[in-house]
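1st attempt posting a full record on here, be nice pls
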Amino acid sequence: MKSAILVDSTSTIPEELQQHPDIYQVTLKITFKDGEVMEDTTEEKEVKYFYNKMVNDATLPLTSQPEPADYYQIMDEIVAKGYDEVYGVFLSSALSGTFQTARMILQEYEDRIKVHLVDTKAVSIIIGHEIKELVRLLEAGYISEEILPAMDQMIKESEIYLFVDDLNNLVKGGRTKAASAFIGSMLKIYPVLYFDKDGTVVLHEKIRTENKIKKSWMKIYQEAREKYGDRLHLGFAHGDAYDKAVEFRDFFLETYPEEDILIRYLTPVVGVHGGKGALGMGFLVDADLK
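the predicted structure (as tokens):
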């Protein structure tokens, strides 16, 4: 089977896969109040420009999913290249209409190509890792009947925790059930958020210091290591808060010096909701197939 993979721009694809010939991407966009439109990106210069402009703008920029024409163009190309199947892997349907639009359009191609749709119920480095695992399974010769259950299992096992300096963006954007946690920012309490099993952002706990967040996250991570063993990897994604991400990474390396810990930016579309200074911890779980 010749397989294509269609992803969206929030997925933070690993660098080694960014030029992979079988991976295609649709791009979300950000529109500022002054009319400037930016494409979602992982390019550091563009990402830093976005975060700096956002914090200096009194109005939260708007995010928009890819245009339907983008899906049609890519799907026409995929079909023309003779692929037998396409895996569509997208950010949480609870956070964006990207998955629903993809499903509507890709289903129109089911008479020409086999379509597999995956709602990751996640964002950022979690999706990137799942795409990496999908490529690994495809290259190892696994078929969709084996891969899709493995993807579902990874989605269930992966976890995201996030703390933000200010919940204004999340509350204004309507992307969290944890609006009451905004009180925490006024009391100098960090609200720690969590992606629940349907991909919605909810309040996990409120913590007074970053040091206590480190200890709390360490405990959560150690429990996950006991459960998943070598299948578990750790990553941090940040809203232009690289030094903070390094600080957390180094804290974990004191206990797990051999751990290869990933650090990546939250793309602008995700950053609109998390805000500058946000830091997320992701549990990247390998597929349970040999």
